[in-house]
Amino acid sequence: MKRRCSRVVPGAPGDRGRRPGASARIEGMGVKRAALFLFLAAAGLAGGAPARAQGELPRFASLRHDTVHVRAGPSQDFPIRWTFQRQGLPVQILREYEHWRYVRDADGEEGWVHASGLRRQRTVLVTGATRVLRAEPAEHGKPVARLETGVVARLEKCERVWCRLSVKGYTGWVKQQEVWGIRPGERLE
Predict the structure, then answer these.
(1) Domain 124-180 is in which class?
(2) Statement: 49-121 belongs to CATH 2.30.30.40
(3) Confidence class of residue 47 from pLDDT cuts 50, 70 and 90?
(4) Could you state, in order of their start, the residue ranges of all structural domains in the chain?
(5) pLDDT value at position 45?
(6) 22, 26, 33, 189: which has the highest count of C-beta atoms within 10 A?
(7) Distance of CA 175 to the CA centre of its chain
């Protein structure tokens, strides 16, 4: 089965960078400092107010670069859990802390990335079976292309059920439920 996104993971093969226990997540920090930070972060009080300049949460964004590190916490002091290796991949931003964004990918994995690794341009990931890109937003619309699972496409517009996508010179419509990277029922002009 093909993976939806490429990841390079430090450590043992297959561990996807997940390490058991809190001690693995707080390397490089004193235990008291780490415990205080984790307590304050859970309470939403650590180090100032979170930035909310770019919209409500949760929201979607896409990866700006081919390589984006996902960390265990919102600082370069935290270890890298894994690395995304696919520019344009959609992620869901769940929380913000200064210049860091806590994101979730299509597989449900979560971690912190620096805001400079993200862009506001909306993309979606084709999920499930091969999907038909249609010329019109209707079941009987003329097929334009077939999209394999894992294809990343630019999101241009979404109505209640259908989304208009652009990918490698093809533009057309797919059902909103056939892609990941947009909230159910979200409208996008």
Answers:
(1) mainly beta
(2) yes
(3) very low
(4) 49-121, 124-180
(5) 40
(6) 26
(7) 20
Residue with tokens 């079941």: 139
Q: Are 131 and 80 in contact (CB under 8 A)?
A: no
Say whether pTM exceeds 0.85: no
Q: How many residues does the chain have?
A: 189
Strand 59-63 relative to strand 90-97, pairing: antiparallel
Of 43 and 134, the one with more pLDDT: 134
How many Å from the N-terminal Cα to the C-terminal Cα in the chain? 34
Which residues, including other chains, have CB under 8 Å from residue 10's CB and lie 6 or more apart? Answer: 17, 79, 80, 82
Rounded to 5 degrees, what are φ and ψ at 47?
60, 30
**What is the mean pLDDT of the segment spanning 97-110?**
98
**Alpha-carbon distance 131 to 175, whole Å?**
9
Q: Determine how many CB atoms are found less than 10 A away from the CB of residue 114.
A: 17
**pLDDT score of 160:** 85
Q: What residues contact 70, with CB distance under 8 A and at least 6 apart? A: 17, 80, 81, 82, 83, 84, 103, 109, 111, 112, 113
Are 49-121 and 124-180 equal in CATH topology?
Answer: yes
What is d(CA 90, CA 119) in angstroms, rounded to the nearest whole number?
A: 10
